[in-house]
Design goal:
Pfam families: DUF3000. 23% of the residues lie in helices and 36% in strands. The protein is built from 4 helices and 6 strands, in the order αββββααββα. Helix 3 (102-116) runs antiparallel to helix 4 (169-183).
Length: 199
């Protein structure tokens, strides 16, 4: 993905830094149509975490989205001119579905990933939602499914005095870390006995 040549330099550099992201092999990122009414400039990527291995039809463990917004005039709620918005959905293992601490744990995935990636961010906020679905009739799949949804947004803090000198690579890496954690993937370079959701 590349930003239009007519886009502000800040936005173009932000898009380039995120488009250059190379996540671990289990994570697939694709360009997608961004929201049109949240900011004058926007870009978006969809994400899937697939089960490790050579299975010809790997299982999708986690899905997500990363949206970049830019308003050259800034927005008061953002405390800046750029905003990153993320969404992550993971199916819960039955033993985790009723854990009362799960929302706090899921939120810590994000805050921990931002900290570990060295991201400077402000105005961090979001929600963690647990949903339960029961299938009836001829719909395929398990009869009872519990999902966790993490929605979050934050404002990247510019590095240095030049607001156009934007590199959001660390922020993109934090997003992929949240995806991997939600899927229960082991750290890169560590062998797995089989990924478990929310393991």
């Amino acid at each position: 993905m590349s930003a239009p040549a007519t886009a502000p330099e800040t936005f173009r550099r932000a898009v380039e830094s995120l488009a250059a992201l190379r996540p671990r092999p289990e994570i697939e990122l694709r360009d997608m149509r961004p929201p049109q009414r949240l900011a004058p400039w926007s870009a978006a990527w969809s994400a899937e975490v697939v089960s490790p291995g050579a299975d010809p039809e790997p299982e999708v463990l986690v899905t997500g989205r990363l949206v970049l917004l830019h308003d050259p005039e800034g927005q008061e709620a953002w405390d800046g001119t750029l905003r990153l918005v993320t969404f992550v959905r993971a199916e819960l293992d039955p033993e985790h579905a009723n854990d009362p601490m799960l929302p706090e744990v899921a939120w810590s995935w994000l805050t921990g990933a931002l900290e570990e990636s060295g991201c400077a961010a402000t105005a961090v906020g979001g929600t963690v939602t647990q949903t339960s679905s029961v299938r009836f009739g001829d719909i395929s799949g398990p009869a009872h499914v519990c999902d966790l949804e993490l929605r979050a947004s934050w404002t990247p803090v510019p590095d240095g005095d030049d607001p156009a000198a934007v590199d959001l690579g660390e922020h993109g890496a934090a997003f992929t870390t949240v995806l991997a954690t939600a899927a229960g993937l082991p750290p890169v370079g560590v062998a797995s006995l089989g990924a478990r959701r929310l393991g």
